[in-house]
């Protein structure tokens, strides 16, 4: 079973979970961590370690972080070097999370991660350029094609 840990700066992780549940319904395989000004690096690392230590038999954690090189990702990376039993993906966004959570248990961890990264990358589109490429304008009926 896959378990997702959304780990971000501030309250972003909680907002992501609330948004995912608005779209996809209640999720029981998701935890979150938020780095705040009140937490020292040591406190944050211990909190993350406690969450990751709740892993059940046959469960695999996929940690989704917000910023490569940020303190949250760095703390998770330190824990990965110590524990070596979960995956970290950085640069999370809503298409990534939804794709991964809705992938289901029949998909492997590797396939789930690959599809999540692809969804994140494919979801970045400069709409102005897309409209120009389709020779559209604001006065047209508003239809965007993939």
Structural account:
The chain is α/β, with parallel strands linked by helices. Helices cover 46% and strands 17% of the residues. It is built from 6 helices and 4 strands. It has a 4-stranded parallel beta sheet, with helices on both faces. Helix 4 packs antiparallel against helix 5.
What labels would you give this structure?
single chain; about 150 residues; alpha/beta; 6 helices; about 15% strand
Secondary-structure-based class equals alpha/beta
Any idea what the radius of gyration is? 18 Å
- Tell me the β content: 15-25%
Query: Biggest sheet: strands side by side, in what order?
Result: 2-1-3-4
Order of helices and strands: EHEHEHEHHH
Mean of residue pLDDT values: 93
In brief, what are we looking at here?
With 146 residues, the protein is of the alpha/beta class.
Helices, strands, pairings?
Elements: E1 2-9, H1 12-24, E2 30-35, H2 41-52, E3 60-65, H3 71-83, E4 86-90, H4 94-101, H5 109-122, H6 127-133
Parallel strand pairs: 1-2, 1-3, 3-4
Helix pairs in contact: 2-3, 4-5
